[in-house]
Amino acid sequence: MMEEDVRANLLSSPRVMTLNDQEATIMVGTKYPIIESQTSASGSSSGSISTSLDYYENIGIQLNVIPQICDNNSVRMVVNPKVRTLISTTSGKTGEQGNISLTEYPILSTREAETHILVQSGETIVIGGLLEDQESKTTLSVPFLGAIPLIGRLFRREAIDNRKMDLLIFLTATIIDSESDMVDEGVMREATTAHIVEMEKAARELTESRAREKSERMAEEARQEELRRELFEQDRAAAEARREAAEQREREEAEARDRAIDKAKADQRARERAALEAARAEIAEKLNREESGEARKLPTAEDDAERESVIKRFPSVGE
Question: Which of 24, 105, 131, 159 would suit a FRET pair with 45, their CA atoms being 20 to 30 Å apart?
């Protein structure tokens, strides 16, 4: 069974204060500039280039929250987390000849969600499900041998690493009525540190729980697959045994038929030899009598008794 290494990292722990029904924004990342380059030609081979900044594109983690204070010391919030990752850039040309202006635009991978929640003041909620699959390729080769043209492919291989990342957002809403509810900077720092530790612990427990569930699910699937394989092997072994038993019965029946046929043929040959020997003996006896000129004797009572005895012992001879 494979062991999975799951770790949780705290990316940021910002705090922001806003008014009732006013949007608050937290941005953790970078601002990507969108540059527009303009070219104005003066003559056939010379020209001047002027560059201007169009706007910035936020890349990273952005959280927009609109809170609304309700009764019973509760807060209703509209939470909109966004995660943007820069993949590459593309450029476009405009103008009659296609070379008047050049603008680079980023190609972004965006993960976004929007949810409406109701919490008590001071409670912490967790927003998850912003999964990201990262795939990286690494070429592993034997030193020197892997760089040889043509045959170097035999001494190197590519390893593909697939990694799944889940972004968890812990959001705590606290209602501040007046300045008396504020704490001094030292207490705020201590509370923030404790809250960070608590969030790290909760994130670690959540990821470890998911890892255990995934490991148990994979182990159960492996056990089910092994059970199906065993049942398949047993069925195949039983079918093989049945087939071998049927073939053995057929062989035995064929051998019995062959033995019966051989015995019948042997008996037939023995009868034919006996009949042939009897005919030869009779012919020889007849020839002997003819040669000696003996007259045929009339049968006596003893001869009749002997003949009756032979008939009783061998009925076929009498017939």
Answer: 105
Beta bridge partners of 126: 170
H helices, E strands: number in the chain:
3, 7
Q: Pull the structure tokens for residue 313.
A: 């012992």
Closest CA to 60 of 109, 101, 99: 109
Encoding tokens for residue 159?
A: 């390893």
The alpha helices in the chain, defined as continuous H runs, are 185-292, 301-313, 315-318
**Contact present, 77 and 66 (Cβ < 8 Å):** yes
Name every residue whose Cβ is closer than 8 Å to that of residue 160 and which is 6 or more positions away in sequence: 135, 136, 137
> What is the C-alpha separation between 313 and 135, in angstroms, rounded?
101
pTM of the full predicted structure?
Answer: 0.44
Which residue type sits at 128? G
Q: How far is C-alpha 136 from the geometric centre of its chain's CA atoms? A: 20
Distances (CA, A) of 167 to 4, 43, 87, 206, 233: 18, 55, 18, 12, 44
- pLDDT, one tens digit per residue, over 245-289 is 888 999 999 999 999 999 998 888 888 888 888 877 877 887 787
